[in-house]
Amino acid sequence: MKPLRLLVLGCLLLFAPGGWCEELVVLVDRAADMPMSRIENGRLTDGVHKMLGEALARGTGRELRFLLLPRKRIARALQQGEADILCGYTPEWIEGDYLWTETVFTAEEVVVTDAGQPQPHAIADLRGQAIGTILGYQHPEIEKILGAGFVRDDSPNMETNLEKLARGRVHHILIARGVLEYRQRLRAIPLKLHPPLSAASFNTRCAVSRKGHLSLEEANRAIAAAARDGTLARILAQFR
Q1: 54 in Cβ contact with 41 (< 8 Å)
Q2: Are residues 90 and 206 in the same domain?
């Protein structure tokens, strides 16, 4: 029996017949795609968000429920306490007042360019050129370098961005290095790209709702436990 099912069964046995097992509601952006999320028939079935949510549920001793929402509804839902926690973000990426956990993963954002185009040697070389981005996501480091010359070409998700790059509709995209490596490995014919330009390095954390049912201390304990027992490392290794 899987560990999460054992957790749920344990809750039921512990509190039966009249009690209940407290729920952990993990918020996930519906626009996220693999390796972060795979959503099938309205359910989260695979990816980093799923595995991390399961680790948090084990670490807090709660029954897990994922709440999948469009990007534009995430901040309001978390502020209103419709969910307890949202992971994979930094405070600069989402508006609102939340409690922030310790670092969960360290990641790097890069710009990649079609090898058929002149190779940029610095982010500043892209001033005035369209860069594939995801609708609703902020890139303060790029904005600081390019200013008004940061020309966004928004897509609903990274899969669309990569397809636009493959078809020549854009020549540059912003993407996490880990996502790029994962996607290139899965493609039948990998995209021909110039070496990535590092745009930003950041420590992703989890935003804990001030109106939810999870304390910051509980979240940090669960994250620390997942780091100690190797769960976080295994999650990343699975999608490299």
Answers
A1: no
A2: yes
Those residues whose C-beta lies under 8 Å from the C-beta of residue 219, and which sit 6 or more positions away, are: 56, 60, 85, 101, 206, 208
pLDDT in tens, 189-231: 899 999 999 999 989 999 999 999 999 999 999 999 999 999 9
Specify the residue for token string 């084990």: 58
pLDDT tens string 101-124: 999 999 899 999 999 999 999 999
- Residues 14 and 96 placed together within one structural domain of the fold: yes
Residue type, 53: G
Gap between the Cα atoms of 135 and 141, Å rounded: 17
The 10 Å CB-count burial string (b at 16+, else e) for 210-224 is eebebebebbbebbe
The shares of helix, strand and coil residues in the chain, as percent rounded to the nearest 5, are 40, 30, 35
DSSP 3-state assignment of 150? coil
**What is the distance between the alpha carbons of residues 112 and 222, in angstroms, rounded to a whole number?**
35
The DSSP letter of residue 168 is T
Tally of domains in the chain: 2
Same domain, 89 and 206: yes
What distances in angstroms separate CA 187 from CA 13, 23, 192, 199, 206, one per listed residue?
Answer: 46, 38, 11, 24, 31
